[in-house]
Every structure is written in structure tokens, then in C-alpha cells.
């Protein structure tokens, strides 16, 4: 039996293959046709938001492989679902949760988290690539998610109100605009700043007191060249709540292994600094081990 996700992908893919436009441009057009009612996937029942997201994601992944560009990458579902689970537990069923993704790309990570939280969740997405913003925007419409988009360098001044939770698959590398980076505490005295460091600082600047930052980081973040600058900043400006190592099996190259860093912004009512959760995600194919791991996360989030 063909699933709704497969039917949605088939609809977008068929439409796109028949178009003369570039694949990702045609994906946007196919989604707009769906929104307008001009053409629709042959669905026997109303799809869930996750089915819609995954169907579009499959088409976007195909387009990215066809027209490979180094900055066109998508956070794998395994990471997104884990961050969504954690964010949902930290939100604790509260209404009117606000999110920010300062490096939103196609929005796949952001929408995975929004789907996991549910309730009345709103979001702001910042992305410098116009094509990715248009993909993200049409996906948000189909998902009926209220998202505000900013097409800009997220490390420049953001006209964004503080949010409850910031999520980001951090762009890794050097930030080339030294003049702009001078406004950040994490700008080193010599050389370029790490963009992923600046994204952490910018994200926490736009997070409410008591709010959280959930970041996908390089596993060697705390041993890297500029770690000596990062350590005192995190100690002064944030509360490190967790460092969660992702399985090596998720990555083709050991040099690109990632972890999840969870920060909380200090707030006046906080009386005791909570312990830091240090954990390693088991193999995601081991259902029993993953179940135990998620129970551990749930207990930690409920403290």
C-alpha cells in the first residue's frame, strides 16, 4: 500500500520531471499548484503535517542531489526528530511557544520541531538563500504553520523579538565579514571568527530569559582552535544544560561527527544551577536502547 508521504512525493516528482525549470524551482511550482487546487496528489485521506513535510523533503533531497551545491544541505530526519522530541519536552505543553531558526535553509528542522511541539506554535526563519526561503515558505503554507521569514545574513542585526526556543543546525566555518563580527563577544583578537560561534551568540541574544537554545554542533566544538574564547562566554552568558553525542554511524566521515548542545538563558528566578546532562545517543536502529535513552531525556527535561 502506497503511503501518503509516497503519494505526495510522487505528485511533486512527476510534476517536476515534466517541467522545463530546474528541479527545485519546479518543486516550488508544484507546491503552489497544490495550494491553489490546480493540481493535487491523489490522497485517499487527509495527510498529517509530518506526511506532508516528509513528502516535500524527499523531493527537495532529490533536487539537491541533482543540482549539488555545498550550502544546500538538509538536517537528517534522525537528528530533527530527536531535537523535536527534546523541544517538545522542554515546551512542556505550554501554549503560544515561539521558535527561531537563524539558519533555516529549507525549514526542514524547524518544521520537524514545530510538528513535534504542536499546540499554538509560531516561528521565525532566517535564511540568506532566496531559493531556500521560497522552498521553506511554500512548505510552511502547506503545513499551515505561521512562520515569519527574513531573507538576510542572520549575523547582521535581526528585528526579531526574543523567543522561547531557538533551534539551529549551525553553519560551520569562518565568518568572512570581520567588520560585522566586531560587534560579537566571540570575535577573536586575530583572524576570522567562527560562524558557528557567532550563531550561538546571536541565537542566545534573541532567546527569552529561561528559554532554550538547541544546536547541532561539531563534536569537537569544545576542543577547536577558538574554544578558549567560547568557554568563558558560555559560562558567563548561558547555562549549559546538555551535551548529547550523536552516533558515529550517522556520519560517513568521522571528521563530520556532530553533537547536540542545549543551552538555557539565565533568568532571575533560577535558584540552583542544574547539572549538565552528558549523554551519547545509542544506535538509532536499536529500538530498546533508544526507548531507554528517550526515557532518560524525558526525566532530565522534567527536572
Question: Would you identify the CATH architecture of the largest domain?
Answer: 3-Layer(aba) Sandwich
Within the CATH hierarchy, at the fold level, what is the topology of the largest domain? Rossmann fold
Shape: globular
Largest sheet: 8 strands, mixed
CATH superfamily of the largest domain: Vaccinia Virus protein VP39
Number of strands: 10
Extract low-pLDDT stretches: none
CATH class of the largest domain equals Alpha Beta
Number of domains: 2
Strands of the widest sheet, in order across it, are: 3-2-1-4-7-9-8-10
Computed over alpha carbons, the radius of gyration is 20 Å
State the end-to-end CA separation: 43 Å
Going by helix content, strand content and strand pairing, the class is alpha/beta
Helical fraction: 40-55%
Name the helix and strand elements from N-terminus to C-terminus, one letter apiece. Answer: HHHHEHEHEEEHEHEHEEEH
Q: Tell me which oligomeric state these chains represent.
A: single chain
Number of helices: 10
A few lines on this structure:
This protein is of the alpha/beta class. It has helices at residues 4-17, 23-36, 49-66, 77-91, 108-117, 130-143, 178-181, 195-205, 227-237, 287-301, and strands at residues 97-101, 121-127, 147-151, 163-169, 174-175, 193-194, 207-218, 239-245, 258-264, 277-280. It folds into two domains: 4-66; 77-301, Vaccinia Virus protein VP39 (Rossmann fold, 3-Layer(aba) Sandwich).
Amino acid at each position: 500500500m502506497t503511503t501518503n508521504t509516497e503519494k505526495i512525493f510522487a505528485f511533486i516528482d512527476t510534476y517536476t520531471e515534466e517541467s522545463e525549470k530546474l528541479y527545485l524551482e519546479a518543486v516550488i511550482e508544484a507546491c503552489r499548484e497544490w495550494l491553489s487546487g490546480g493540481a493535487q496528489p491523489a490522497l485517499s485521506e487527509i495527510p498529517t503535517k509530518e506526511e506532508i513535510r516528509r513528502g516535500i523533503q524527499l523531493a527537495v533531497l532529490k533536487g539537491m542531489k541533482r543540482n549539488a551545491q555545498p550550502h544546500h544541505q538538509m538536517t537528517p530526519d534522525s537528528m530533527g526528530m530527536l531535537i523535536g522530541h527534546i523541544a517538545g519536552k522542554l515546551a512542556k505543553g505550554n501554549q503560544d511557544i515561539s521558535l527561531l531558526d537563524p539558519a533555516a535553509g529549507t525549514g526542514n528542522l524547524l518544521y520537524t520541531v514545530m510538528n513535534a511541539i504542536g499546540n499554538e506554535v509560531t516561528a521565525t526563519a532566517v535564511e540568506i538563500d532566496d531559493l531556500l526561503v521560497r522552498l521553506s515558505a511554500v512548505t510552511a503554507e502547506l503545513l499551515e504553520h505561521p512562520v515569519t521569514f527574513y531573507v538576510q545574513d542572520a549575523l547582521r542585526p535581526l528585528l526579531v523579538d526574543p523567543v522561547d526556543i531557538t533551534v539551529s543546525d549551525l553553519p560551520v566555518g569562518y565568518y568572512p565579514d570581520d567588520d560585522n563580527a566586531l560587534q560579537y563577544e566571540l570575535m577573536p583578537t586575530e583572524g576570522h571568527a567562527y560562524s558557528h560561534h557567532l550563531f550561538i551568540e546571536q541565537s542566545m541574544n534573541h532567546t527569552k530569559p529561561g528559554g532554550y537554545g538547541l544546536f547541532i554542533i561539531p563534536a569537537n566544538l569544545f576542543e577547536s582552535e577558538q574554544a578558549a574564547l567560547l568557554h568563558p562566554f558560555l559560562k558567563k552568558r548561558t547555562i549549559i544544560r546538555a551535551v548529547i553525542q550523536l552516533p558515529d554511524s550517522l556520519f560517513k566521515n568521522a571528521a563530520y561527527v556532530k553533537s547536540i548542545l542545549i543551552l538555557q538563558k539565565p533568568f532571575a528566578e533560577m535558584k540552583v544551577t542544574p547539572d549538565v546532562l552528558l549523554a551519547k545517543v545509542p544506535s538509532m536502529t536499536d529500538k530498546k536502547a533508544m526507548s531507554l535513552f528517550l526515557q532518560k531525556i524525558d526525566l532530565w527535561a522534567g527536572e
